[in-house]
Amino acid sequence: MEGLYLERPAPALTRLDAAITRLTALGHTDETESLISLAARLRDEE
Predict the structure, then answer these.
(1) DSSP letter at 30?
(2) CA 4 to CA 30: how far, in whole Å?
(3) What is the distance between the alpha carbons of residues 18 and 39, in angstroms, rounded to a whole number?
(4) Contact, 18 vs 36, CB < 8 A?
(5) Residue 36 CB: number of other CB atoms within 10 A?
(6) How confident is the model at residue 9 (pLDDT cuts 50, 70, 90)?
C-alpha cells in the first residue's frame, strides 16, 4: 500500500466503506473480503 492512501487514510476509508457496502448489497461478498482487510489495516495505522 502506498501513495495518497498512506498520507490520507480517512478519505480512503470512506471510499472503501462505500465500496464494501455497495458490493455487499449486490451480493458480491467474495470481492469484499480483500477490501475489508485493507480497511482494517488502514484503521490500525491511524
Answers:
(1) H
(2) 26
(3) 11
(4) no
(5) 15
(6) confident
